Amino acid sequence: MRALFLLLIAGYASGAAAALALGTGALSRWASALGAIVGASAGLALAAGVCIRGAAFSLDAPGFFGPVGGMAFTLDPLGAVFLALTSLVAAPSALYGAGYARLWEGRPALRQVGFMLNVFLLTMSLVPLAGGTLTFLLVWEGMSLSSYFLVMTESDEPEVVSAGQWYLAMTQIGLACLLGSFLLLQSGGPGGFSALRAAALTLPPGTRDAVFALALIGFGSKAGLIPLHVWLPRAHPAAPSHVSALMSGAMIKMGIYGLLRVSLDLLGGGPAWWGGLVLALGAVSALLGVLYALMEHDLKSLLAYHSVENIGLITMGVGAGLLFGSLQMPAAATLALVAALYHTVNHAVFKGLLFLGAGAVLHATGMRDMNRLGGLIRGMPWTAALFLVGSAAISGLPPLNGFVSEWLLFQSLLPGIGAPSPLVAVLMVLSLGMLALTAGLCAACFVKAFGITFLAIPRSPEAAAAHEVSWSMRAGMVVLAVACLVLSIGAFEIVPRLSSFVAPLVGVAGPAPSFSVGLALQTPGGFARMSPALVAAGLALVVLTAWLAVKAFASRRPVRVGETWGCGRVVQTPRMEYTATAFAEPLRRIFAAVYRPSEDVSVDFHPDSRYFVQSISYHSAIVPWFERYLYAPVISRVRSWSERVLALQSGSAHAYLTYLVLALVLLLGWLVVTGQP
Amino acid sequence: MSPWLLGPVQAALALLLAPGLVGAIRWMKARLQNRSGAPPWQPYLELRKLFAKEVVVSNNASWLFRAAPFIVFGSTVAVTLLVPLLAVPLPFDGAGDLLVVVYLLLLGTFFLALAGLDPGSPFGGMGASREMTVAALAEPTMALAIFALAWSAGSTNLGHIAARVLATPTEALAPGHVLAFAAIFVVTLAETGRLPVDNPATHLELTMIHEAMVLEYSGRYLALIEWAAALKLLVFFTLLGNLFAPWGIAAALTPGALLWAVLTLALKLLALGGVVALVETHIAKLRLFRVPELLSASFILALLAVTASFLLR
Fold it and tell me: Which of A13, A579, B100, B241 could cross-link with B268 by S-S, CB 3.0 to 4.6 Å?
């Protein structure tokens, strides 16, 4: 264990060092990726060890940062799940990144990305390993800053700079809240998590509420819960694609980790409103996330909004777990938390895959705007097939992993109607409806994302000329696509393990419920049974039989290739196809009350007669309302204050000298008044 | 008979009955409209003809266009292994519940919509966009109706729900059940492309949903898709018939009981088909942007069903 831990650090550190030392060529690309892959493999092995043994691993390093108490590392099974998912995305992303980074050969950006990526992966892997407040905050901030530098890779574009500013602002606000939360929790004692856990029980309820609320804001801003998600759709498109995959697949999950760690582990659960609030926030994030994703035609922004959606789904599970925990329904609470954790791992895998796929598209065409893509399935068959796997998985389609965790999430909300309070029952029923709508809209959105990007006729010359990406980029995606299927079929093995990790957190007495019978999953009391493995086998069998039967019995005449039917038009052009905008139009109209789109039509008439139209121009934009009503006023207020402060900085040396004298006089006056010597 | 044979028998029976169901609805509709109409077995002849015909595929289409009919057909056939068509307890009841049925059908819809986009025709895009919109909006109703049913039956597994209603027949008239039935009936109309959501008989560009999506298909691929669509209708009717009024379903796998089950199933399918034919004769198609209103009404029904189950728990 100890050796694996050291190998994890050594792998990433050597990757970072290699990036700095080996210049800006192919050697540096591969060496830094190799370091990351070694680190990730060690991380995966360490996490697997802790998961299988079920016992925590800990290591104290009092020598590091000695004056403030030293660093402490502990990996319990809950943390191990998060270390595992980080490593699971890190290795394929690093492999992919080795190919992707060819873009920056001969530029300092290669060195910067190689170094920062390894630092980012190292600090992110250490977050679930942190065993004390100081260690946690240090690696947390390391993760935030290194990812900020990665977002800023292409910093000569104004869009990227703006995205970086949003990201930095949100992450520092989050850090401030976390500092507050941990300060309240710590109340003078040493910062080890085990000490905090013991001390948290004696805190007054008001303080516990404050700790929870601050942690929710702090971790929620990292996870991307609405309305704290504003940085996601900006930073993800700006970052290099394998970095987006890591940020979306792994980093935002650390927000979920922190929320679980503080609310369930350190505070040991709380009143029912904690869970209710988290559940409601999750449901709103899920639904609004997918609604905004539908309107997004930038492939990577679309995926970023889907991260908001999926974080919402995960948070719903966490909220239901907290709520059931406070209502003394431990089996239901365990199921909800298992669903949340399972979806966390699944989302890491398929979202990582989708971002890598989007990156491959960007790499091949230089474009992210879906309305200019199309037809890529011919030039990029591998990327297309792998992106399709990711799309089906995120849409919750059987037999892939998203389906299993969404099923568990549905099942974990069903016991809610049995809750003693009608208010809880109503909340659960409404959440269930929102969950179902989210699932349906997500499928619609991925028909759009895949169909418009990869199918039909290319909408631009760049899309027509696209070629398949390098083998290392493909290999990275293949690993994640295989993981999508394995995580689904292996559910009967994974779910009981997850259950044994979370059951102690919600006060299950005795052995943890296993939720698994043979190859099937089973919810408490035998309420529902489902076997992902059998569903997969059945589907494969039926599809294969149908194919063989058609081959044997149907007409054997060869397929004739003709033109698409078009009501007698002479030639088919891409302009006749449905675009992403057109595809989402019905939903835009139906949910107009949510979107509040601004529309602007201007018609140019012929100067002689209004009956002849020369041109029509139509503009429509959707500004998310939370940006307009929540962030815009705050930003303008901050800006006006800063401008007022600017008046002090006149540039005149006389004025500055006057400030000095004034400050001195005030200080002396204060000393006189307070009577100190 | 071995219980494990029941799965394949169910699938074969469903495949056999489905085209007849569509034919019967068309025939009844024609009679209600004072037309003589095609005979009820017409869909069988159409399938035979389509399987024998040559396939024409668009030059813009990819492998996905050719794979989709098999996935659509396969996922729908897989569903027939899970629904209580003839007997309870079902052999594959532990393999999947009502939610799995919904997701398997969504899998078919997903690939059909992608196949609609593949040839690059504006009709295909229009159909795909509308189909996914309607499918997404129907999901919450379905989820809540399942919730109401499952809560009173104590399980989301289909065999359990049917067995529960068989054991306590008063359950069938509980308000929660009746309201859930109404909600699922509306979802059935929407999901299977019937009036007032979609017109199965139309080929008018502006009103098509399902037909627009499959416009580029021909030959055996079209046959598979048509068959799958008929099968989907049969699945929804079976859910309505055998979850809410499971009488006639065989409790033991004896030839007599099974024969009786087939007969009652055929009667239930015909009765529901008659209702759909009646609805389609009396109601005009809704404008696309009025469909959400219909679906929100069905959502309210499902919500009431849950509320009733909650109050009477």
Answer: B241
